[in-house]
Specification:
728 residues; alpha/beta; N-terminal domain of TfIIb; Rossmann fold; Dimethylsulfoxide Reductase, domain 2; 4 domains; seven-stranded mixed sheet; six-stranded mixed sheet; 33% helix; 16% strand; binds iron/sulfur cluster
Amino acid sequence: MNPTKSQCPYCGVGCGLEVQPPAIPGKATNRDSRGNPIWQVRGDRAHPSSLGKVCVKGATVAESLDKNRLKYPMMRDSLDDKFRRVTWDEALDKIVNRIQTVRFTQGPDSICMYGSGQFQTEDYYVAQKLIKGALGTNNFDANSRLCMSSAVSAYIKSFGADGPPCSYNDLEETDFAFLIGTNTAECHPIIFNRLRVYHKKNKKVKMVVVDPRRTKTAEAADLHLAIKPGTDIDLLNGIAHLLMRWGYLDTVFMDECTAGFSEYAEVIEHYPPELVARKCGIRLDDLETVARWWGESGRVLSMWSMGINQSREGTGKARSLINLHLMTGNIGKPGAGPFSLTGQPNAMGGREAGGLAHILPGYRLVSNPQHRVEVEQFWGLKPGQISPYRGRSAWEMITGLETGEVGLLWIAATNPAVSMPDLERTKAALRKSPFTICQDAYFPTETANYAHVLLPAAQWGEKTGTMTNSERVVTLCEAFREPLRQAKPDWEIFAEVGRRLGFKEMFDFADSEAVRAELIELTRDRPCDMTGITYDRLREKGPIQWPCRDSNPDVSEERLYTNLQFHTADGRARFGAYHAKGLAELPEKDYPFVLTTGRLYGHWHTMTRTGRIDKIRKLHPEPFIEIHPRDAEKLGVEEGNLVIVRSRRGMARFPAKITKAITPGTVFVPMHWGALWANFAEANALTHPESCPESLQPELKACAVQLVPFTIEGLAEVEESDRVLVSN
Ligand code: SF4
């Protein structure tokens, strides 16, 4: 029996999987630790992105298929009531009724949808058509806003269009890998293994990792720069300063293919190496070594993820990194380029389909009148139906609930009651929501507590659709089983609501193949042209990288910008000049530590799937806080002691893990655990929502905290100071 081909539904590496049923004639049935039969999953050797490799998440994904599933629609009138089971008709009637009421009383901009990089591209597309097209509001945002919207913003501003320009093959063709703000070894393990093997074999190839923690990624590097949190732009401008001082500039490339250097040159003048080394807390000779390696390498590949993006200056950080590539001509050739590694499995598909509040399908912008007209005409809408205003970002949906401007919130395939910043404030806003729909494959989740209607979604393997990974490779993920009980694919739910709202023709899709056929037409002649990537061709050829045009479907572009023409009006890439601002919340007397948050190898996001997989729970049984031995000694904390961590917004407590992997003055907490999985261990109870003004991505990576050993006296002290804080 031929296995079903798919893509792993966890991270943006997008490894290929092959799936077979639990029972295959003549073979032993695969079973979980409780003896239940489970589908058999292995890496797809024919997948170009992963060549048959998978990590523990991909290998165990089938174990989550039947656990804690939402099986049928449920409703309740108020959050104090219990859910009651209802039919799909009752649930959809209620939703349509409510949408119409809000639309005509408060206006369409009071309706919001918060979606997910777990969507397939077809789900994303139909959601855009419903919210931005039929309803006429751009209030669709996705959890990608919290993950990589700074990368989107940086690519658009530097190159004139979004889209990571590199391919995974560049990992094995580079002379110098510069990783900043990314724990690739744990968060994107399969591509990191590729880089690690290549690096080990090729002694001349250098690898630098910039991270305040000595992560597993940092351990593999030739040089680890443990910069102080928030000093990334100082470092990048300092490297640029040295590249300029030492004459490592590709002046031909800069003259012919870029603009804006003189303003940038004025900025980097202010970042001499002595000052930068001091501000970053690193050695001067290490800074010089990195600049020299960058300048002397013919092919430089940089990689980044949340450590750069989740910052109030996330766009500035990513653009400052891109600037180094523009100075040295490191783009559009093998082994070189600025490579944003996406977190979610289909954050890239979301970008293609217009799945953020400021974009439209086909890498178009809400703010561009021509782009709006193109989409309106394609969708058969009246002129002006698509709003010229960007919609609410994820965090602005929360503040809209606080002010009463949001009258209906539809959350799908994501868990904001764990992943949003300032969680107590988020939860209070969700409690105020007049009407919240929560559409998910799983139940319970932390967010379901705040829903009025629960809609059961089909999950990975129960619907056919496409996903795009970080290197722009599109994989067809075929359904290999029926949706559980009454669950339906997300796109079908959105289409049914569209039809019930009266937009019958707009949402008359026979199947997901028809949805993709429509979407790819909207990418024609756009930077992400996917007209050559149909279901038929994906079934025939396997995964395909875009751009891939139907005029020449056997040709994909492995790298963008090989012709050194960018998507700006004059074809030139833009330097972005940014001074460092540092952290939004600096440590001070009452909150003397910087808390940084991150992910672990085995767990995914808010553990909705991985929390139910025995092997992964054994791997990471409980949350923890990493503290440097010197800080632990001052606090009187020993390994395993509970520590109360408090910020200006909330409190949590974790067992201490004392390690030199973290620098003194900084502590680390994993972001995965929500209220379902541990008591008082929510990292985001502590974080703040201050965001990058260009990307609207919150600074989830850092905030100021105080630590108190968990003793009865310590707890009393914390409670007393909380009381004073509240009464003030
Ligand atoms: S590296 Fe990412 S995509 Fe690949 S198997 Fe692991 S979680 Fe899945």
